[in-house]
Amino acid sequence: MEVIECVPNFSTSDSQIVEQIIEKIKKTSEAFLLDYTFDAYYNRLVVSFVGNKHSVVEAALNASFKAIELIDMRTHKGQHPRIGAVDVVPFIPIKNVTMKECVELAKKFGEKLAEKCDIPVYLYGEAATCPERRDLDWIREGEYEKLAGMIAKPKRKPDYGPAKFNPKAGATITGARKLMAGFNVNLGTSNLKIAKKIAKALHAKKGGFSNVKAMAAFIPEKNITQIGMSIVDFDKTPLYRVFELLKVECARHNVPIIGSEFCGMAPLKALIDVATYYLKVDNLSQDRVLEIAIQNAMEKGDSFE
Amino acid sequence: MEVIECVPNFSTSDSQIVEQIIEKIKKTSEAFLLDYTFDAYYNRLVVSFVGNKHSVVEAALNASFKAIELIDMRTHKGQHPRIGAVDVVPFIPIKNVTMKECVELAKKFGEKLAEKCDIPVYLYGEAATCPERRDLDWIREGEYEKLAGMIAKPKRKPDYGPAKFNPKAGATITGARKLMAGFNVNLGTSNLKIAKKIAKALHAKKGGFSNVKAMAAFIPEKNITQIGMSIVDFDKTPLYRVFELLKVECARHNVPIIGSEFCGMAPLKALIDVATYYLKVDNLSQDRVLEIAIQNAMEKGDSFE
Protein backbone atom coordinates (compact mmCIF):
# COMPACT_ATOMS: atom_id res chain seq x y z
CA MET A 1 0.00 0.00 0.00
CA GLU A 2 1.52 3.30 -1.09
CA VAL A 3 1.47 6.52 0.91
CA ILE A 4 2.04 9.97 -0.63
CA GLU A 5 2.02 13.17 1.37
CA CYS A 6 0.80 16.40 -0.15
CA VAL A 7 1.53 19.78 1.49
CA PRO A 8 -0.38 22.46 -0.43
CA ASN A 9 0.19 26.12 0.51
CA PHE A 10 -2.74 28.48 -0.04
CA SER A 11 -2.60 32.28 0.15
CA THR A 12 -5.15 32.89 2.85
CA SER A 13 -5.58 33.14 6.60
CA ASP A 14 -9.30 33.88 6.50
CA SER A 15 -10.74 31.24 8.79
CA GLN A 16 -13.97 30.90 6.80
CA ILE A 17 -12.07 30.26 3.59
CA VAL A 18 -9.67 27.92 5.41
CA GLU A 19 -12.58 25.88 6.69
CA GLN A 20 -14.04 25.41 3.21
CA ILE A 21 -10.70 24.35 1.72
CA ILE A 22 -10.07 21.85 4.55
CA GLU A 23 -13.58 20.48 4.18
CA LYS A 24 -12.81 19.51 0.57
CA ILE A 25 -9.85 17.39 1.67
CA LYS A 26 -11.76 15.77 4.50
CA LYS A 27 -14.55 14.83 2.10
CA THR A 28 -12.29 13.18 -0.47
CA SER A 29 -12.47 9.46 0.08
CA GLU A 30 -9.19 7.69 0.95
CA ALA A 31 -7.46 11.01 1.64
CA PHE A 32 -6.48 11.71 5.27
CA LEU A 33 -5.92 15.16 6.70
CA LEU A 34 -2.92 15.25 9.03
CA ASP A 35 -2.61 18.91 9.88
CA TYR A 36 -3.19 22.51 8.86
CA THR A 37 -1.85 25.80 10.17
CA PHE A 38 -2.40 29.39 9.14
CA ASP A 39 -1.46 32.74 10.54
CA ALA A 40 -2.05 36.36 9.77
CA TYR A 41 1.60 37.44 9.49
CA TYR A 42 2.37 35.02 6.70
CA ASN A 43 -1.30 35.18 5.52
CA ARG A 44 -0.82 31.62 4.38
CA LEU A 45 -2.47 28.25 4.96
CA VAL A 46 -0.22 25.16 5.00
CA VAL A 47 -2.06 21.84 4.85
CA SER A 48 -0.70 18.34 5.18
CA PHE A 49 -2.58 15.24 4.09
CA VAL A 50 -1.82 11.75 2.84
CA GLY A 51 -3.43 9.43 0.36
CA ASN A 52 -2.79 6.87 -2.33
CA LYS A 53 -1.89 7.79 -5.92
CA HIS A 54 -5.48 8.41 -6.85
CA SER A 55 -6.87 10.08 -3.74
CA VAL A 56 -3.93 12.42 -3.15
CA VAL A 57 -4.39 14.10 -6.56
CA GLU A 58 -8.15 14.11 -6.17
CA ALA A 59 -8.01 15.83 -2.77
CA ALA A 60 -5.39 18.36 -3.95
CA LEU A 61 -7.61 19.28 -6.91
CA ASN A 62 -10.79 19.54 -4.82
CA ALA A 63 -9.09 21.84 -2.32
CA SER A 64 -7.46 23.93 -5.06
CA PHE A 65 -10.69 24.48 -6.99
CA LYS A 66 -12.27 25.82 -3.81
CA ALA A 67 -9.24 28.03 -3.03
CA ILE A 68 -9.27 29.55 -6.51
CA GLU A 69 -12.98 30.21 -6.18
CA LEU A 70 -12.65 31.98 -2.81
CA ILE A 71 -9.23 33.69 -2.70
CA ASP A 72 -8.63 37.00 -4.45
CA MET A 73 -4.90 37.72 -4.89
CA ARG A 74 -5.60 41.38 -5.74
CA THR A 75 -6.09 42.12 -2.03
CA HIS A 76 -3.53 39.64 -0.62
CA LYS A 77 -0.65 40.79 1.56
CA GLY A 78 1.74 38.59 3.57
CA GLN A 79 5.33 38.16 4.64
CA HIS A 80 5.82 34.85 2.83
CA PRO A 81 6.70 34.95 -0.91
CA ARG A 82 3.82 33.76 -3.12
CA ILE A 83 2.58 34.03 -6.71
CA GLY A 84 -0.91 32.61 -6.47
CA ALA A 85 -4.00 31.65 -4.51
CA VAL A 86 -2.89 28.02 -4.74
CA ASP A 87 0.74 28.89 -4.35
CA VAL A 88 2.64 25.62 -4.24
CA VAL A 89 1.53 21.96 -4.18
CA PRO A 90 4.32 19.42 -3.58
CA PHE A 91 3.85 15.64 -3.69
CA ILE A 92 6.17 13.71 -1.38
CA PRO A 93 6.93 9.97 -1.45
CA ILE A 94 6.47 8.41 2.00
CA LYS A 95 6.00 4.67 1.56
CA ASN A 96 6.00 2.16 -1.30
CA VAL A 97 6.10 4.88 -3.94
CA THR A 98 8.97 6.34 -5.99
CA MET A 99 9.92 9.95 -6.60
CA LYS A 100 9.25 9.32 -10.29
CA GLU A 101 5.68 8.31 -9.53
CA CYS A 102 5.24 11.49 -7.46
CA VAL A 103 6.49 13.50 -10.45
CA GLU A 104 3.72 11.91 -12.50
CA LEU A 105 1.16 12.84 -9.84
CA ALA A 106 2.32 16.47 -9.89
CA LYS A 107 2.02 16.57 -13.67
CA LYS A 108 -1.46 15.09 -13.54
CA PHE A 109 -2.48 17.63 -10.89
CA GLY A 110 -0.93 20.57 -12.75
CA GLU A 111 -2.48 19.68 -16.08
CA LYS A 112 -5.98 19.26 -14.61
CA LEU A 113 -5.78 22.45 -12.53
CA ALA A 114 -4.62 24.54 -15.51
CA GLU A 115 -7.28 23.11 -17.76
CA LYS A 116 -10.16 23.47 -15.32
CA CYS A 117 -9.25 26.93 -13.88
CA ASP A 118 -7.48 28.44 -16.88
CA ILE A 119 -4.42 29.46 -14.83
CA PRO A 120 -0.67 29.18 -15.50
CA VAL A 121 0.99 26.21 -13.74
CA TYR A 122 4.73 25.67 -13.25
CA LEU A 123 6.46 22.40 -12.42
CA TYR A 124 9.29 22.55 -9.83
CA GLY A 125 11.58 20.29 -7.80
CA GLU A 126 11.96 16.80 -9.20
CA ALA A 127 9.16 17.54 -11.70
CA ALA A 128 10.96 20.59 -13.20
CA THR A 129 11.26 20.73 -16.98
CA CYS A 130 14.51 22.74 -16.93
CA PRO A 131 17.24 23.24 -14.28
CA GLU A 132 16.17 26.75 -13.14
CA ARG A 133 12.68 25.53 -12.41
CA ARG A 134 13.90 23.02 -9.85
CA ASP A 135 14.14 26.07 -7.60
CA LEU A 136 10.87 27.34 -6.14
CA ASP A 137 12.37 30.78 -5.52
CA TRP A 138 13.44 31.18 -9.13
CA ILE A 139 9.88 30.57 -10.28
CA ARG A 140 8.50 32.86 -7.58
CA GLU A 141 10.87 35.74 -8.42
CA GLY A 142 9.05 39.09 -8.30
CA GLU A 143 6.10 37.36 -6.63
CA TYR A 144 2.47 37.91 -7.55
CA GLU A 145 3.05 41.65 -7.97
CA LYS A 146 5.40 41.17 -10.95
CA LEU A 147 3.85 38.00 -12.30
CA ALA A 148 2.17 39.72 -15.27
CA GLY A 149 5.55 40.82 -16.66
CA MET A 150 7.41 37.64 -15.77
CA ILE A 151 4.90 35.31 -17.34
CA ALA A 152 5.33 37.00 -20.74
CA LYS A 153 9.05 36.08 -20.89
CA PRO A 154 9.68 33.07 -23.14
CA LYS A 155 11.87 31.26 -20.60
CA ARG A 156 9.09 31.64 -18.04
CA LYS A 157 6.36 30.10 -20.18
CA PRO A 158 4.13 28.02 -17.90
CA ASP A 159 4.31 24.23 -18.16
CA TYR A 160 0.52 24.05 -18.30
CA GLY A 161 -2.22 26.61 -18.94
CA PRO A 162 -2.08 30.00 -20.63
CA ALA A 163 0.99 32.32 -20.55
CA LYS A 164 -1.44 34.97 -19.43
CA PHE A 165 -1.73 36.76 -16.08
CA ASN A 166 -4.79 35.78 -14.05
CA PRO A 167 -5.24 38.70 -11.59
CA LYS A 168 -7.58 36.89 -9.22
CA ALA A 169 -5.75 33.54 -8.91
CA GLY A 170 -2.16 34.32 -9.95
CA ALA A 171 -0.22 31.16 -10.85
CA THR A 172 0.38 27.77 -9.23
CA ILE A 173 3.59 25.81 -8.74
CA THR A 174 3.44 22.04 -8.32
CA GLY A 175 6.06 19.32 -8.20
CA ALA A 176 7.64 16.48 -6.28
CA ARG A 177 10.28 16.65 -3.59
CA LYS A 178 11.82 14.75 -0.69
CA LEU A 179 10.30 15.01 2.75
CA MET A 180 11.69 18.11 4.40
CA ALA A 181 11.64 19.55 7.91
CA GLY A 182 9.99 22.90 8.55
CA PHE A 183 11.22 24.56 11.72
CA ASN A 184 10.43 28.02 13.09
CA VAL A 185 12.39 29.65 15.86
CA ASN A 186 11.08 32.64 17.82
CA LEU A 187 13.56 35.31 18.80
CA GLY A 188 13.24 37.59 21.80
CA THR A 189 13.63 40.72 19.71
CA SER A 190 11.30 42.84 17.63
CA ASN A 191 14.24 44.00 15.52
CA LEU A 192 13.59 42.54 12.06
CA LYS A 193 16.95 43.81 10.82
CA ILE A 194 18.80 41.58 13.28
CA ALA A 195 16.49 38.65 12.58
CA LYS A 196 17.23 39.05 8.87
CA LYS A 197 20.96 38.96 9.55
CA ILE A 198 20.55 35.73 11.50
CA ALA A 199 18.40 34.17 8.76
CA LYS A 200 21.00 35.16 6.19
CA ALA A 201 23.74 33.32 8.08
CA LEU A 202 21.78 30.09 7.64
CA HIS A 203 20.32 30.56 4.16
CA ALA A 204 21.85 28.48 1.37
CA LYS A 205 22.03 31.27 -1.18
CA LYS A 206 23.63 33.67 1.26
CA GLY A 207 26.48 31.33 2.19
CA GLY A 208 24.66 29.30 4.82
CA PHE A 209 23.88 25.59 4.79
CA SER A 210 23.34 24.24 1.28
CA ASN A 211 20.12 22.47 2.24
CA VAL A 212 18.54 25.25 4.28
CA LYS A 213 16.18 28.05 3.36
CA ALA A 214 15.76 30.61 6.11
CA MET A 215 13.70 33.78 6.26
CA ALA A 216 12.90 36.29 8.96
CA ALA A 217 9.41 37.59 9.77
CA PHE A 218 7.94 39.99 12.30
CA ILE A 219 5.08 38.66 14.45
CA PRO A 220 3.06 41.69 15.52
CA GLU A 221 0.78 39.89 18.04
CA LYS A 222 3.81 38.92 20.10
CA ASN A 223 6.06 41.82 19.10
CA ILE A 224 8.86 39.36 18.31
CA THR A 225 10.59 38.07 15.21
CA GLN A 226 10.73 34.55 13.85
CA ILE A 227 13.24 32.65 11.74
CA GLY A 228 11.28 30.34 9.43
CA MET A 229 13.38 27.52 8.05
CA SER A 230 12.98 24.71 5.56
CA ILE A 231 15.59 22.00 5.81
CA VAL A 232 15.34 20.55 2.37
CA ASP A 233 17.54 17.53 3.06
CA PHE A 234 17.77 16.86 6.79
CA ASP A 235 19.82 13.70 6.25
CA LYS A 236 22.67 15.77 4.88
CA THR A 237 22.09 18.80 7.06
CA PRO A 238 20.67 17.56 10.36
CA LEU A 239 18.44 19.82 12.42
CA TYR A 240 20.74 19.96 15.45
CA ARG A 241 23.53 21.44 13.33
CA VAL A 242 21.27 24.16 11.98
CA PHE A 243 19.98 24.91 15.48
CA GLU A 244 23.47 25.08 16.97
CA LEU A 245 24.58 27.59 14.32
CA LEU A 246 21.41 29.57 14.94
CA LYS A 247 22.36 29.67 18.64
CA VAL A 248 25.83 30.95 17.73
CA GLU A 249 24.43 33.74 15.57
CA CYS A 250 21.82 34.67 18.17
CA ALA A 251 24.52 34.85 20.86
CA ARG A 252 26.56 37.11 18.63
CA HIS A 253 23.64 39.56 18.44
CA ASN A 254 22.63 39.07 22.09
CA VAL A 255 19.23 37.78 21.04
CA PRO A 256 17.58 35.05 23.15
CA ILE A 257 15.82 32.08 21.54
CA ILE A 258 12.43 32.03 23.24
CA GLY A 259 10.83 29.02 21.60
CA SER A 260 10.47 26.98 18.45
CA GLU A 261 8.04 24.75 16.61
CA PHE A 262 7.93 22.31 13.76
CA CYS A 263 6.07 23.81 10.85
CA GLY A 264 3.78 20.96 9.83
CA MET A 265 4.55 17.42 10.93
CA ALA A 266 7.86 16.54 12.57
CA PRO A 267 9.69 13.79 10.65
CA LEU A 268 10.78 11.03 13.05
CA LYS A 269 14.26 10.92 11.50
CA ALA A 270 14.80 14.57 12.44
CA LEU A 271 13.89 13.81 16.08
CA ILE A 272 16.23 10.82 16.13
CA ASP A 273 19.08 13.01 14.85
CA VAL A 274 18.44 15.46 17.69
CA ALA A 275 18.56 12.73 20.36
CA THR A 276 21.58 11.15 18.71
CA TYR A 277 23.54 14.38 18.88
CA TYR A 278 22.55 15.81 22.26
CA LEU A 279 22.59 12.48 24.14
CA LYS A 280 25.57 11.09 22.18
CA VAL A 281 23.58 8.01 21.15
CA ASP A 282 25.72 5.65 19.08
CA ASN A 283 23.13 3.92 16.95
CA LEU A 284 19.46 4.73 16.85
CA SER A 285 17.43 3.95 13.76
CA GLN A 286 13.69 4.40 13.17
CA ASP A 287 13.03 0.71 13.67
CA ARG A 288 14.53 0.95 17.19
CA VAL A 289 11.74 3.33 18.19
CA LEU A 290 9.14 1.27 20.06
CA GLU A 291 6.03 2.60 18.33
CA ILE A 292 7.53 2.10 14.85
CA ALA A 293 8.94 -1.34 15.71
CA ILE A 294 5.49 -2.47 16.85
CA GLN A 295 3.89 -1.12 13.68
CA ASN A 296 6.50 -2.89 11.51
CA ALA A 297 6.23 -6.17 13.41
CA MET A 298 2.47 -6.21 13.14
CA GLU A 299 2.45 -5.31 9.46
CA LYS A 300 4.70 -8.27 8.76
CA GLY A 301 2.54 -10.69 10.74
CA ASP A 302 -0.96 -10.05 9.48
CA SER A 303 -2.56 -12.73 11.61
CA PHE A 304 -2.24 -10.45 14.64
CA GLU A 305 -5.70 -9.64 15.93
CA MET B 1 -6.87 -4.53 19.08
CA GLU B 2 -4.76 -4.61 22.24
CA VAL B 3 -0.97 -4.54 22.36
CA ILE B 4 1.05 -5.69 25.38
CA GLU B 5 4.83 -5.56 25.52
CA CYS B 6 6.77 -8.17 27.46
CA VAL B 7 10.45 -7.64 28.32
CA PRO B 8 11.77 -10.85 29.90
CA ASN B 9 15.32 -10.88 31.30
CA PHE B 10 17.15 -14.20 31.22
CA SER B 11 20.44 -14.97 33.00
CA THR B 12 22.53 -15.99 30.02
CA SER B 13 24.79 -14.61 27.32
CA ASP B 14 25.55 -17.98 25.74
CA SER B 15 24.62 -17.42 22.10
CA GLN B 16 23.41 -20.99 21.58
CA ILE B 17 21.05 -20.75 24.53
CA VAL B 18 19.96 -17.26 23.44
CA GLU B 19 19.07 -18.58 20.02
CA GLN B 20 16.87 -21.34 21.40
CA ILE B 21 15.01 -18.97 23.72
CA ILE B 22 14.41 -16.45 20.93
CA GLU B 23 13.21 -19.22 18.62
CA LYS B 24 10.42 -20.04 21.07
CA ILE B 25 9.10 -16.47 20.91
CA LYS B 26 9.36 -16.32 17.13
CA LYS B 27 7.41 -19.56 16.82
CA THR B 28 4.53 -18.45 19.05
CA SER B 29 1.72 -17.38 16.78
CA GLU B 30 0.53 -13.76 17.13
CA ALA B 31 3.60 -12.83 19.17
CA PHE B 32 6.11 -10.47 17.55
CA LEU B 33 9.76 -10.22 18.50
CA LEU B 34 10.95 -6.61 18.55
CA ASP B 35 14.47 -6.88 19.86
CA TYR B 36 16.96 -8.78 21.98
CA THR B 37 20.37 -7.89 23.36
CA PHE B 38 22.86 -9.77 25.50
CA ASP B 39 26.41 -9.18 26.63
CA ALA B 40 29.05 -10.97 28.58
CA TYR B 41 29.65 -8.33 31.27
CA TYR B 42 26.03 -8.40 32.45
CA ASN B 43 25.73 -12.06 31.37
CA ARG B 44 22.10 -11.30 30.73
CA LEU B 45 19.64 -11.53 27.81
CA VAL B 46 16.97 -8.82 27.52
CA VAL B 47 14.19 -9.58 25.05
CA SER B 48 11.35 -7.37 23.88
CA PHE B 49 8.26 -8.67 22.14
CA VAL B 50 4.61 -7.71 21.74
CA GLY B 51 1.40 -9.65 21.48
CA ASN B 52 -2.24 -9.74 22.46
CA LYS B 53 -3.44 -10.94 25.87
CA HIS B 54 -3.26 -14.55 24.88
CA SER B 55 -0.10 -14.67 22.77
CA VAL B 56 2.04 -12.52 25.07
CA VAL B 57 1.63 -14.97 27.98
CA GLU B 58 2.04 -17.94 25.68
CA ALA B 59 5.31 -16.65 24.23
CA ALA B 60 6.66 -15.67 27.67
CA LEU B 61 5.95 -19.18 28.96
CA ASN B 62 7.43 -20.94 25.92
CA ALA B 63 10.65 -18.91 26.20
CA SER B 64 10.84 -19.38 29.99
CA PHE B 65 10.41 -23.16 29.84
CA LYS B 66 13.33 -23.30 27.43
CA ALA B 67 15.47 -20.97 29.57
CA ILE B 68 14.86 -23.05 32.70
CA GLU B 69 15.77 -26.18 30.77
CA LEU B 70 19.07 -24.75 29.46
CA ILE B 71 20.40 -22.28 32.04
CA ASP B 72 22.21 -23.46 35.16
CA MET B 73 22.40 -20.74 37.82
CA ARG B 74 25.03 -22.66 39.79
CA THR B 75 27.68 -21.49 37.33
CA HIS B 76 26.25 -18.04 36.55
CA LYS B 77 28.26 -14.87 37.14
CA GLY B 78 27.38 -11.35 35.98
CA GLN B 79 27.42 -7.69 36.98
CA HIS B 80 23.64 -7.32 36.93
CA PRO B 81 21.66 -8.37 40.04
CA ARG B 82 19.61 -11.53 39.47
CA ILE B 83 17.93 -14.34 41.39
CA GLY B 84 17.04 -16.79 38.65
CA ALA B 85 17.46 -18.21 35.16
CA VAL B 86 14.22 -16.45 34.18
CA ASP B 87 15.00 -13.44 36.31
CA VAL B 88 12.22 -10.95 35.67
CA VAL B 89 9.24 -10.91 33.30
CA PRO B 90 7.28 -7.62 33.18
CA PHE B 91 4.08 -7.10 31.19
CA ILE B 92 3.60 -3.54 29.92
CA PRO B 93 0.38 -1.97 28.62
CA ILE B 94 0.97 -0.31 25.23
CA LYS B 95 -2.38 0.06 23.48
CA ASN B 96 -6.04 -0.66 24.27
CA VAL B 97 -5.20 -2.51 27.45
CA THR B 98 -5.20 -1.46 31.11
CA MET B 99 -2.56 -1.91 33.78
CA LYS B 100 -5.05 -4.06 35.67
CA GLU B 101 -5.31 -6.43 32.72
CA CYS B 102 -1.52 -6.64 32.57
CA VAL B 103 -1.49 -7.54 36.28
CA GLU B 104 -3.81 -10.43 35.44
CA LEU B 105 -1.46 -11.56 32.66
CA ALA B 106 1.51 -11.53 35.05
CA LYS B 107 -0.44 -13.62 37.57
CA LYS B 108 -1.44 -16.09 34.89
CA PHE B 109 2.17 -16.34 33.70
CA GLY B 110 3.56 -16.69 37.23
CA GLU B 111 1.08 -19.35 38.27
CA LYS B 112 1.69 -21.48 35.18
CA LEU B 113 5.48 -21.15 35.36
CA ALA B 114 5.58 -22.14 39.05
CA GLU B 115 3.28 -25.07 38.48
CA LYS B 116 5.04 -26.42 35.43
CA CYS B 117 8.66 -25.88 36.55
CA ASP B 118 8.24 -26.22 40.31
CA ILE B 119 10.06 -22.94 41.04
CA PRO B 120 9.28 -20.03 43.39
CA VAL B 121 7.66 -17.03 41.66
CA TYR B 122 7.30 -13.50 43.08
CA LEU B 123 4.90 -10.81 41.88
CA TYR B 124 6.30 -7.23 41.70
CA GLY B 125 5.40 -3.76 40.46
CA GLU B 126 1.69 -3.20 39.96
CA ALA B 127 1.11 -6.92 40.52
CA ALA B 128 2.76 -6.92 43.98
CA THR B 129 0.80 -8.51 46.83
CA CYS B 130 2.37 -6.27 49.51
CA PRO B 131 4.09 -2.85 49.41
CA GLU B 132 7.69 -4.12 49.72
CA ARG B 133 7.24 -6.40 46.74
CA ARG B 134 6.46 -3.50 44.41
CA ASP B 135 10.23 -3.02 44.44
CA LEU B 136 12.24 -5.41 42.27
CA ASP B 137 15.39 -4.73 44.30
CA TRP B 138 13.72 -5.67 47.56
CA ILE B 139 12.76 -9.05 46.14
CA ARG B 140 16.22 -9.51 44.64
CA GLU B 141 18.05 -8.65 47.87
CA GLY B 142 21.02 -10.99 48.39
CA GLU B 143 20.61 -12.23 44.83
CA TYR B 144 20.76 -15.86 43.74
CA GLU B 145 23.63 -16.55 46.14
CA LYS B 146 21.51 -15.86 49.24
CA LEU B 147 18.18 -17.00 47.84
CA ALA B 148 18.12 -20.27 49.81
CA GLY B 149 18.12 -18.38 53.09
CA MET B 150 15.84 -15.56 51.97
CA ILE B 151 13.15 -17.82 50.60
CA ALA B 152 12.73 -19.52 53.97
CA LYS B 153 11.70 -16.23 55.67
CA PRO B 154 7.92 -16.00 56.14
CA LYS B 155 7.65 -12.47 54.68
CA ARG B 156 9.50 -13.68 51.60
CA LYS B 157 7.19 -16.59 50.88
CA PRO B 158 6.78 -16.86 47.09
CA ASP B 159 3.44 -15.83 45.55
CA TYR B 160 3.41 -19.05 43.53
CA GLY B 161 5.34 -22.31 43.71
CA PRO B 162 7.26 -23.88 46.58
CA ALA B 163 9.10 -21.87 49.28
CA LYS B 164 12.06 -24.05 48.48
CA PHE B 165 15.39 -23.17 46.84
CA ASN B 166 15.80 -24.51 43.32
CA PRO B 167 19.60 -24.48 42.77
CA LYS B 168 19.49 -24.82 38.99
CA ALA B 169 16.75 -22.27 38.17
CA GLY B 170 16.67 -19.94 41.19
CA ALA B 171 13.44 -17.94 41.35
CA THR B 172 11.44 -15.78 38.94
CA ILE B 173 9.88 -12.34 39.40
CA THR B 174 6.96 -11.30 37.23
CA GLY B 175 4.63 -8.32 37.26
CA ALA B 176 3.19 -5.35 35.43
CA ARG B 177 4.67 -1.88 35.07
CA LYS B 178 4.58 1.27 33.00
CA LEU B 179 6.71 1.56 29.91
CA MET B 180 10.15 2.72 31.02
CA ALA B 181 13.25 3.96 29.24
CA GLY B 182 16.49 2.02 29.51
CA PHE B 183 19.54 4.15 28.78
CA ASN B 184 23.22 3.23 29.07
CA VAL B 185 26.01 5.79 28.99
CA ASN B 186 29.63 4.84 28.35
CA LEU B 187 32.28 6.72 30.29
CA GLY B 188 35.84 7.27 29.13
CA THR B 189 37.32 5.80 32.29
CA SER B 190 38.10 2.30 33.48
CA ASN B 191 37.77 3.45 37.10
CA LEU B 192 34.72 1.63 38.43
CA LYS B 193 34.93 3.52 41.70
CA ILE B 194 34.31 6.83 39.95
CA ALA B 195 31.57 5.30 37.79
CA LYS B 196 29.86 4.05 40.94
CA LYS B 197 29.98 7.54 42.45
CA ILE B 198 28.34 8.97 39.34
CA ALA B 199 25.65 6.26 39.33
CA LYS B 200 24.97 6.95 43.00
CA ALA B 201 24.32 10.63 42.28
CA LEU B 202 21.46 9.62 39.97
CA HIS B 203 20.05 6.62 41.80
CA ALA B 204 16.71 7.10 43.58
CA LYS B 205 17.66 5.31 46.78
CA LYS B 206 20.91 7.20 47.11
CA GLY B 207 19.32 10.64 46.87
CA GLY B 208 19.13 10.89 43.08
CA PHE B 209 16.03 11.19 40.91
CA SER B 210 13.03 9.43 42.43
CA ASN B 211 12.23 7.63 39.15
CA VAL B 212 15.74 6.54 38.22
CA LYS B 213 17.70 3.41 38.93
CA ALA B 214 21.36 3.70 38.02
CA MET B 215 24.20 1.22 38.33
CA ALA B 216 27.81 1.18 37.21
CA ALA B 217 29.51 -1.69 35.40
CA PHE B 218 32.97 -2.33 34.00
CA ILE B 219 33.17 -3.35 30.32
CA PRO B 220 36.39 -5.34 29.94
CA GLU B 221 36.34 -5.57 26.10
CA LYS B 222 36.51 -1.80 25.86
CA ASN B 223 38.28 -1.13 29.17
CA ILE B 224 35.66 1.47 30.04
CA THR B 225 32.79 1.78 32.50
CA GLN B 226 29.10 2.16 31.83
CA ILE B 227 26.25 3.76 33.73
CA GLY B 228 23.16 1.60 33.15
CA MET B 229 19.93 3.43 33.89
CA SER B 230 16.25 2.63 34.05
CA ILE B 231 14.00 5.65 34.01
CA VAL B 232 10.90 4.16 35.55
CA ASP B 233 8.66 7.14 34.82
CA PHE B 234 10.08 9.29 32.05
CA ASP B 235 7.05 11.56 32.02
CA LYS B 236 7.90 12.78 35.50
CA THR B 237 11.67 12.53 35.14
CA PRO B 238 12.48 13.24 31.49
CA LEU B 239 15.59 11.76 29.93
CA TYR B 240 17.26 15.10 29.16
CA ARG B 241 17.21 16.05 32.85
CA VAL B 242 18.86 12.80 33.86
CA PHE B 243 21.44 13.20 31.09
CA GLU B 244 22.23 16.79 32.03
CA LEU B 245 22.84 15.80 35.66
CA LEU B 246 24.99 12.93 34.46
CA LYS B 247 27.04 15.47 32.48
CA VAL B 248 27.45 17.61 35.59
CA GLU B 249 28.69 14.68 37.68
CA CYS B 250 31.00 13.49 34.90
CA ALA B 251 32.49 16.98 34.60
CA ARG B 252 33.08 17.03 38.33
CA HIS B 253 35.16 13.87 38.05
CA ASN B 254 36.78 14.90 34.75
CA VAL B 255 35.30 11.88 33.00
CA PRO B 256 34.23 12.22 29.35
CA ILE B 257 30.95 10.75 28.07
CA ILE B 258 31.99 8.73 25.04
CA GLY B 259 28.66 7.37 23.86
CA SER B 260 25.26 6.10 24.88
CA GLU B 261 22.51 3.75 23.77
CA PHE B 262 18.93 2.93 24.52
CA CYS B 263 18.69 -0.42 26.23
CA GLY B 264 15.86 -2.07 24.34
CA MET B 265 13.45 0.02 22.30
CA ALA B 266 13.44 3.81 22.53
CA PRO B 267 10.01 5.14 23.52
CA LEU B 268 8.94 7.92 21.14
CA LYS B 269 7.84 10.12 24.04
CA ALA B 270 11.39 10.08 25.43
CA LEU B 271 12.75 11.25 22.05
CA ILE B 272 10.16 14.01 21.86
CA ASP B 273 11.15 15.22 25.33
CA VAL B 274 14.78 15.41 24.20
CA ALA B 275 13.94 17.48 21.11
CA THR B 276 11.57 19.64 23.14
CA TYR B 277 14.27 20.53 25.62
CA TYR B 278 17.34 20.95 23.43
CA LEU B 279 15.57 22.72 20.55
CA LYS B 280 13.19 24.66 22.85
CA VAL B 281 10.16 23.30 21.02
CA ASP B 282 6.95 24.71 22.49
CA ASN B 283 4.47 21.98 21.72
CA LEU B 284 5.27 18.63 20.20
CA SER B 285 3.04 15.66 20.86
CA GLN B 286 3.29 12.14 19.50
CA ASP B 287 0.49 12.76 17.01
CA ARG B 288 2.52 15.64 15.49
CA VAL B 289 5.20 13.16 14.42
CA LEU B 290 4.61 12.40 10.75
CA GLU B 291 4.92 8.61 10.88
CA ILE B 292 2.56 8.36 13.86
CA ALA B 293 0.07 10.84 12.39
CA ILE B 294 -0.11 8.79 9.19
CA GLN B 295 -0.61 5.58 11.16
CA ASN B 296 -3.38 7.19 13.23
CA ALA B 297 -5.10 8.74 10.21
CA MET B 298 -5.10 5.46 8.33
CA GLU B 299 -6.32 3.46 11.31
CA LYS B 300 -9.30 5.78 11.60
CA GLY B 301 -10.15 5.58 7.92
CA ASP B 302 -10.15 1.89 7.22
CA SER B 303 -11.20 2.23 3.59
CA PHE B 304 -7.65 3.34 2.72
CA GLU B 305 -6.14 0.80 0.36
Summarize the structure.
Two copies of one chain form a homodimer. Chain A has helices at 15-27, 53-70, 99-117, 136-139, 147-151, 192-202, 239-252, 268-278, 290-300, and strands at residues 3-6, 9-10, 31-39, 44-51, 86-95, 121-125, 172-176, 181-187, 212-219, 224-231, 257-262.
Structural notes for this entry:
- Chain A is an alpha+beta fold and about 300 residues long.
- Chain A has two domains: about 5-175, Formiminotransferase, N-terminal subdomain (Formiminotransferase-cyclodeaminase, Chain B, domain 1); about 180-290, Formiminotransferase, C-terminal subdomain (Alpha-Beta Plaits), CATH 3.30.70.670.
- Helices cover about 35% and strands about 25% of the residues of chain A.
- The first copy, chain A, contains nine helices and eleven strands.
- The first copy, chain A, has helices at about 15-25, 55-70, 100-115, 135-140, 145-150, 190-200, 240-250, 270-280, 290-300; strands at about 5, 10, 30-40, 45-50, 85-95, 120-125, 170-175, 180-185, 210-220, 225-230, 255-260.
- In chain A, the strands form two sheets. In chain A, strands 1, 2, 3, 4, 5, 6 and 7 form a seven-stranded mixed beta sheet that branches.
- Chain A is globular.
- The two termini of chain A are about 20 Å apart.
- In chain A, about 50% of the residues are buried.
- The mean pLDDT of chain A is about 95.
